[in-house]
Specification:
With 392 residues, this protein is α+β, with helices and mostly antiparallel strands. The chain folds into 3 domains: 3-115, Butyryl-Coa Dehydrogenase, subunit A, domain 1, CATH 1.10.540.10; 121-230, Butyryl-CoA Dehydrogenase, subunit A, domain 2, CATH 2.40.110; 246-372, Butyryl-CoA Dehydrogenase, subunit A, domain 3, CATH 1.20.140. It has helices spanning 3-19, 31-48, 66-76, 87-100, 104-115, 230-245, 252-261, 273-301, 309-332, 343-351, 362-372, and strands at 121-124, 140-144, 147-154, 165-171, 182-188, 194-199, 208-219, 223-224, 263-264, 267-268. Strands 1-4-5-8 form a 4-stranded mixed β-sheet. A 4-stranded antiparallel β-sheet has the order 2-3-7-6, with no helix packed on it. A two-stranded antiparallel sheet has the order 9-10. Helix 1 (3-19) packs parallel to helix 3. 37% of the residues are buried.
Length: 392
């Protein structure tokens, strides 16, 4: 760290201590209540320059570095504020739109609205038959004059039911190998022909959706990147998603407090050597992952592109969250299975496996590490070089 960032951290900490208490999540809140609170929190951050720290000022951001963003995020995580609703919108979809969008006027119009939480963006990649293999998407976009007609289905789309805009990967040429026939667009989620069906998780959360496209017409001006060049745009988005997903940490401070207040054999659980060892291991791992993240972000700040470091951090973070969640559940005993003030620990434990899928499964990320970091040969791909419409 440097003195300028140290000063920035103090400013963030002071602002959060003053303002976060007005927007704390409460147990028992409905989804609508949480979203309303999240929009209020987002607007507060926007007014103070903390809502989209790395985005250019003309789009509503603060124009600061990724390291500034990390500093604020680390401090924000110390408060129980509604952060999750705008992560995909501001970390994945909106930056892609701002980077590849054709209309600067539209970027200047939509950017600030998203930053303030007035509008929300979703990301539509996965399909029933295309998840880990992103290039296998079948949702098609066909050219019709100056427009495109989209038909197909997307799955596991976070917050599509409340989204105003979304980015989507489609197949525009089935006669070439699967990676080469994809194009990337942004769409108004209120367009005629779009149907959203919400899926309920076993945690009770209702953030995931199916999205159906039935002859949805959009202009070519809503294309992001070149025709049939959408796969590289999607990779750009995915790299940012892996950094966003890997920024989720186990709630270690809360678990330590829980261990202090839970009795094992008549003594506080924090005195138990096995529990202390698990907490220490989790802390050490988090610090190591934090340093990996900082080095990668510094490289980006110096002009590089997001690399495979995000894959390493995301791989290990899923395991860390699962281990921390299991410890909390063990400490709570039967209470860990009941709704109430500690329900978030159960949710953290149940959601940990999801983080091993979002942004690329563990298996896909291990291949990334093997091929791009260790230099191992690629695994055999029988579809390599074949046209998509020739695949079974």
């Amino acid at each position: 760290m440097n003195p300028e960032l140290d000063q920035y951290r103090e400013e963030c900490r002071a602002w959060l201590n003053e303002n976060a208490r007005h927007c704390l999540l409460q147990d028992g809140m409905t989804l609508d209540e949480e979203i309303a609170l999240a929009r209020k929190w987002q607007a507060l951050k926007a007014d103070a320059g903390y809502a989209a720290i790395t985005l250019p000022c003309e789009y509503g951001g603060a124009g600061k570095s990724e390291l500034h963003k990390i500093v604020f995020s680390e401090e924000e995580m110390q408060h129980r504020v509604p952060r999750q609703y705008f992560i995909i919108s501001l970390s994945n979809a909106l930056p892609t739109f701002l980077h590849y969008g054709q209309s600067n006027e539209l970027k200047c119009e939509l950017g600030p609205k998203a930053v303030r939480g007035e509008q929300l963006w979703c990301q539509m990649f996965s399909e029933p038959g295309a998840g880990s293999d992103l290039a296998a998407v079948r949702t098609k976009a066909e050219k019709d004059g100056d427009d495109w007609i989209i038909n197909g289905q997307k799955l596991w789309t976070s917050w599509a039911q409340i989204a105003d805009w979304g980015v989507i990967l489609t197949r525009t040429d089935p006669t070439v190998p699967k990676h080469k026939g994809l194009s990337y667009f942004f769409v108004n989620m209120k367009s005629p022909g779009i149907e959203v069906r919400t899926l309920k998780r076993f945690t009770g959360d209702q953030d995931l959706n199916e999205v159906f496209f039935n002859d949805v017409r959009i202009p070519d001006s809503q294309r992001l990147g070149e025709v049939n060049g959408g796969f590289m745009v999607a990779i750009h988005t995915l790299m940012m998603e892996r950094y966003a997903v890997s920024s989720v940490n186990a709630p270690l401070d809360e678990i330590i407090e829980l261990a202090k207040n839970t009795k094992v054999g008549g003594e506080p659980a924090i005195h138990d050597s096995a529990i202390r060892e698990t907490i220490a291991d989790t802390f050490i791992e988090q610090q190591g992952l934090r340093n990996i993240h900082r080095r990668a972000v510094q490289a980006i700040s110096d002009g590089g592109s997001p690399g495979p470091e995000g894959a390493i951090r995301k791989l290990l973070m899923g395991e860390s969250l699962l281990r921390a969640g299991k410890l909390a559940m063990d400490l709570l005993g039967a209470e860990g299975l009941r709704a109430g003030s500690y329900n978030r620990f159960a949710k953290s434990w149940l959601n940990a496996p999801v983080l091993r899928i979002a942004g690329g499964t563990d298996e896909v990320l291990k291949n990334t590490v093997a091929e791009r970091i260790l230099g191992l040969p690629q695994e055999m791909r029988p579809d390599k070089g074949k046209a998509f419409n020739e695949l079974p």
